[in-house]
Design a protein that fits this description.
This protein is α+β, with helices and mostly antiparallel strands. A hairpin with a 3-residue loop joins β6 and β7. Strands 2-4-5-7-6 form a five-stranded mixed beta sheet, covered by helices on one side. Strands 1-3 form a two-stranded antiparallel sheet. The chain is built from ten helices and seven strands. The N terminus is likely disordered. It is 60% helix and 12% strand. α1 crosses α3, α2 runs antiparallel to α3 and α5 crosses α10. The chain is elongated and about 120 Å long. The longest helix has 54 residues.
Length: 338
């Protein structure tokens, strides 16, 4: 029996085996009919030479018909394989049905395509509406956040410093919501060109400076003259998420940022680390791991967004960790060609 499923070979020989298996009952019926006629003619003492000649002619006819029929079969097979391997399928691309059974299958497939197209349109409309809504919501909520920041900055007290830090976290979560929706959508507003890594990294450090100070963490970064081909906004978002995780799970020590000559950015912390069994799943959406369950505040979305962003930018991201000693995240960029 030929192998079934999408893993089946596309060679003509394998298709021919499938062809023989599909028409095995026809072949069996032909052999039975030839056997019956030969047997009856033999019982009536008809010259067997004549019988053999008739059988030979019928076999010769089969040798002419079968290749022609198989060629039609193979062409239809290739048509369906091309449709299956294509990105989109439209009802107009389907071959015409050759019998009642194929016609039923064709109508079922056309109906399924129509329902799928409607569902895709509905989901696309919902997604676009959601992105528009949250985009508006983010811009609107930033106004009261800005007002609260100004009010808190009027008095330089420890209480206000704590509130400013919490306000900063709120703003980061707001931006994360919008980034999440944009990543899930098709419009990602990419501007790919050559950027200085030093400018991007220093802007991220400045943004998180208040959080570093509040937790008493030292930031080690020596600067770099490396440049990468990327989108500045999304790369900044990705580095900010990695820094946010580093600060969140580091209570003492330091955070080190290093840029290698081989177009790599390494962010190392001295935090609580990640359990070994959690490492393979840290980029899964919603997966919080042992630390997240203990913290009870983790959403499991930060590293998922980092991975999605990295894939979009063509950046390889890897994370390694030793529980109790810290975590290191490395971004591997494709080297610039000059």
């Amino acid at each position: 029996m030929p192998e079934k499923g999408s893993q089946r070979s596309n060679s003509i020989f394998s298709v021919f085996l499938a062809y023989l298996y599909q028409y095995r009952m026809t072949v069996f019926f032909y052999l039975v009919v030839v056997g019956i006629f030969s047997g009856v003619l033999y019982l009536y003492r008809v010259n067997m030479e004549a019988v053999g000649y008739a059988v030979f002619l019928s076999l010769l006819l089969c040798l002419v018909i079968v290749p022609i029929h198989f060629l039609t079969y193979y062409r239809r097979y290739k048509t369906f394989r091309n449709l299956l391997e294509g990105q989109w399928l439209m009802a107009s691309q389907l071959p015409e049905a050759r019998n009642l059974e194929e016609n039923n299958y064709r109508e079922l497939l056309i109906k399924w395509l129509e329902n799928t197209t409607k569902e895709k349109s509905r989901l696309q409309y919902f997604k676009e509406e959601s992105v528009d809504y949250y985009s508006t919501w983010v811009h609107q909520i930033k106004t009261p956040i800005a007002v609260m920041r100004l009010c808190l900055q009027e008095e330089d007290t420890k209480e206000n410093e704590k509130l400013l830090l919490e306000l900063f976290k709120i703003e980061q979560y707001v931006d994360m919501v919008l980034s999440h929706f944009r990543l899930e959508g098709e419009e990602r507003d990419l501007v790919i060109k050559e950027y200085s890594l030093d400018d991007i990294i220093r802007s991220c450090i400045r943004k998180y400076a208040s959080w570093f100070v509040a937790k008493g963490l030292q930031v080690k970064y020596e600067g770099t003259d490396q440049k990468v081909l990327t989108d500045k906004k999304w790369l900044t978002f990705m580095i900010e998420q990695l820094l946010s995780n580093a600060v969140k799970y580091t209570d003492k020590g330091h955070i080190t940022i290093e840029v290698g000559e081989d177009s790599t950015v390494m962010i190392r912390d001295t935090g609580i680390g990640i359990a070994k069994e959690d490492l393979p799943r840290i980029f899964e959406k919603g997966y919080t791991g042992y630390n997240g369950r203990a913290d009870k505040k983790s959403t499991g979305i930060g590293l998922y967004l980092v991975k999605r962003t990295a894939d979009m930018l063509g950046v390889l991201v890897k994370v390694d960790s030793v529980p109790g000693e810290g975590t290191v995240a490395v971004l591997y960029f494709s080297p610039l060609s000059h």
